[in-house]
Design brief:
By secondary structure, the protein is of the alpha/beta class. It has one domain (about 5-255): Rossmann fold. The chain has helices spanning about 15-30, 45-50, 60-65, 95, 105-110, 135-145, 160-175, 195-205, 220-225, 230-235, 240-260, and strands at about 5-10, 35-40, 75, 80-85, 125-130, 145-150, 180-190, 210-215. It has an 8-stranded mixed sheet, with helices on both faces. Bound molecules: adenosine-5'-diphosphate and magnesium ion. Involved in chromosome partition. Localize to both poles of the predivisional cell following completion of DNA replication. InterPro entries: AAA_dom, DNA_Partitioning_ATPase, P-loop_NTPase. This is Chromosome partitioning protein ParA. It comes from Amaricoccus solimangrovi.
Length: about 270
C-alpha cells in the first residue's frame, strides 16, 4: 500500500501551514498512523519545530527531490511513528537548478516512488510547502493525492485562495488528474475578536463543506512550542491548540475514509 500524500499549502506566509504540518502529523501518529513529514520550505521551520537543529540535518528534502536511488532520507522524530525529511536553505536554489530538467515538475513524485526511499508501512506523507506557488509547491501538488489549505481568520483570508484553486485545477488538468482538496482549515481563530467570527462565517458561506468543522484557535501554546523544539501536542497536550489539532486529525481521517470528491468553491 502506498501512503496517502497530503500537501499542506497556501502561498501566503504565516497562515499556519507549518504549525498544522507539525501538529497534524503528531496527532495522526498519536492515533496510530505512520507518518512522514517532508519539509520543503527552505526556511526549515517544520524541521526546527520537530527538534532537528540545522547542524544535525544530514540528507535533506533537496537530496530527496533530486534522488535517483534509495537512501535513508527520513529521520525518526521524538514522536513515535513520525518521520521527517528536513529542509535546509539549499532548497532555495531548486527552481534554478531544475530549470532544464524535463521532469522538474515530477521530481517529488518520482522520488516518492523509489523503492526503499521511505520508511516502511507509511500511512501518510505530509508535505509542508513554502509560502509561494513556486516549483517546489508545484512538485508537491503533482505528487499529492490531496491538498489541505490552512486559512487564517483575517480580513484578506479569501484573497489568494482563488489563485491557489486555479493552480490546483491546472495541475489536475495536466499532471495529476485525481488531485483533490482534502479541506480548508480556519486557523488563528480569536473568539474575542468579531472580525475572526465574521471571516469564519464568510469563508463557510463561500466554501461550504470544503471547510473543516474544526477551527484552530489562536493559542499561545501553539506559538511557544517551536521555540522549545517540540510539537504543541508534546509541549502542552491539554492546550486548546493541541486539542483542536487532535480533532482536526479525526476529521482528516474521516474524510479520507469518505473519499470525498473535489468540491469547487463558488
Ligand atoms: P506558515 O507555515 O504558513 O508560514 P506558521 O505555522 O509558521 O505559518 O505560523 C506563523 C506564526 O504564527 C508562527 O510564529 C506560529 O507559531 C504562529 N501560529 C500559527 N498558528 C497559530 C495559532 N493557532 N495560534 C497562535 N499562533 C500561531
Ligand atoms: Mg511554514
Amino acid at each position: 500500500m502506498r501512503p496517502h500524500v497530503l500537501a499542506i499549502t497556501n502561498q501566503k506566509g504565516g497562515v499556519g501551514k507549518t504549525t498544522t504540518a507539525i501538529n497534524l502529523g503528531t496527532a495522526l501518529a498519536a492515533l496510530g498512523k505512520r507518518v512522514l513529514l517532508i519539509d520543503i520550505d527552505p526556511q526549515g521551520n517544520a524541521s526546527t519545530g520537530l527538534g532537528l537543529p540545522v547542524a544535525s540535518r544530514g540528507l535533506t528534502a533537496y537530496d530527496f527531490i533530486v534522488a535517483t536511488e534509495p537512501r535513508d532520507f527520513a529521520v525518526q522524530t521524538m514522536v513515535p511513528d513520525l518521520y521527517l525529511i528536513p529542509a535546509t536553505s539549499d532548497l532555495s536554489s531548486a527552481d534554478v537548478d531544475l530549470v532544464s530538467d524535463p521532469r522538474r515538475l515530477q521530481k517529488m513524485r518520482d522520488s516518492l516512488a523509489i523503492p526503499g526511499a521511505l520508511p516502511e508501512r507509511l500511512d501518510y506523507v505530509l508535505i509542508d510547502c513554502p509560502p509561494s506557488l513556486n516549483l517546489l509547491t508545484l512538485n508537491a501538488l503533482v505528487a499529492a493525492h490531496s491538498v489541505l489549505v490552512p486559512l487564517q481568520c483575517e480580513f484578506f483570508a479569501l484573497e489568494g485562495l482563488s489563485q491557489l484553486m486555479r493552480t490546483v485545477q491546472s495541475v489536475r488538468g495536466a499532471l495529476n488528474p485525481s488531485l483533490r482538496i482534502q479541506g480548508i482549515v480556519l486557523t488563528m481563530y480569536d473568539r474575542r475578536n468579531n472580525l475572526s467570527g465574521q471571516v469564519a462565517m464568510d469563508v463557510r458561506d463561500n466554501l461550504g463543506s470544503l471547510v473543516y468543522e474544526t477551527v484552530i484557535p489562536r493559542n499561545v501554546r501553539l506559538s511557544e512550542a517551536p521555540s522549545h523544539a517540540v510539537p504543541a501536542l508534546i509541549y502542552d497536550y491539554t492546550s486548546s491548540g493541541s486539542i483542536a489539532y487532535q480533532r482536526l486529525a479525526g476529521e482528516v481521517l474521516a474524510r479520507m475514509r469518505g473519499n470525498r470528491d473535489l468540491v469547487e468553491p463558488a
